[in-house]
Amino acid sequence: MKDLKARAIRGGFAKVCSQGANFALRVGSLMVLARLLDPKDFGLVGMVTAFTGVLTLFRDFGLSSATVQRVEVTEEQISTLFWINLLVGAILWLLLVAVSPLVAAFYREPRLLWVTIVLAAGLFFNAVGVQHSAMLQRQMRFTALAIIDFIALFSGIIVAITMALYGFKYWSLVAMTTVTPLVTSISLWLTTGWIPGAPRRRVGVHSMMRFGGTITLNGLVVYVAYNLEKVLLGRFWGAETVGVYGRAYQLINIPTDNLNSAVGEVAFSVLARVQNDAARLRSYFLKGYSLHSHFSLARSNDPDVRHDESFLLAPFFHGLGQSQPENCPGHCAACHLRLLDRAAIRP
């Protein structure tokens, strides 16, 4: 238990430091790119990512969470899940390429055809590293994950700013969105050193796929709830409006996104390790989420509400849902609840 607690603290510290650095990078790059590019450039990419974000939720079908959640997982299971992820990523890539003319027609913007086609590659790049990331989470190697996140984000930003300086306009944002998952997956492969084996039948992945389906459904509902307005803005008001709205939305949500990402990833890995110990699971769950709520939510002046655990937990799940889909702790909220079906939350 002491070792688990120490690893959780070290992992949480590494993730918080990483997210602090990522926060500075994201805000700084947004300020620089806002001076180099027009609002329409941001809007064009934002119009497409509102669509691609939905497909991003299906890129791993929740199988990374399933890998982390299992008490024991075999080499054959992880390898089989890797090939399933790869197949899903390839299908989503081809699907988005096929519907790219429809996306351009929906927004009445011909430039979105090739923007959609190029951004579709990011779905496949993400799928390549899903199980490698899950393995690092199972091993609670959060420092390695934090470094990888920073390197990938920094690489994407450097490419974007360089292309923007040379006049590539919205293509600089497209490149950043594509380069980041590519660098992430390459770094994950190099860090783990794991090479997947051949897929196997009847190795016990069906239950993991059902678990992953639940996570995906949760993420889909959350994503639609928080991104539908971007689709409607793009359809009826155009790229410039989406660009202005998208930048403001990013600036408001970057702190919450970073905090949720750091807490959600570490918390899920720790809870998964103690899921068969009801007392520890309940204790870790309540302590961790109450602490997060103190940091991320305004406290109520009503003492009866302030000290009620349901008040602490319910808004926390609401806050989780606003995170970015590629690393959405809203998915983890469902995972946590699934773990907690083994034990009552209240003492």
Structural description of this entry:
The chain has 347 residues and is an all-alpha fold. The chain has one domain (2-342). Helices cover 80% and strands 0% of the residues. It has helices spanning 2-36, 39-56, 63-69, 75-107, 112-128, 130-138, 142-165, 170-192, 206-237, 239-273, 278-296, 303-306, 309-320, 329-339. The longest helix has 35 residues, at 2-36. It is globular and about 55 Å long. The model is unreliable at 298-335 and 340-347 (pLDDT under 50).
Write a brief structural summary:
With 347 residues, the protein is mostly helical. The protein is 80% helix and 0% strand.
Q: Span between N and C termini?
A: 20 Å
Largest sheet: none
* Count of spatially separate domains: 1
Please mark out the parts with pLDDT under 50 across 5 or more consecutive residues, or reply none: 298-335, 340-347
Strand content: under 5%
From the helix content, strand content and strand pairing, which structural class follows?
A: mainly alpha
The total of beta strands comes to 0
Q: How many helices?
A: 14
List keywords for this structure.
347 residues; single chain; disordered C terminus; mainly alpha; globular
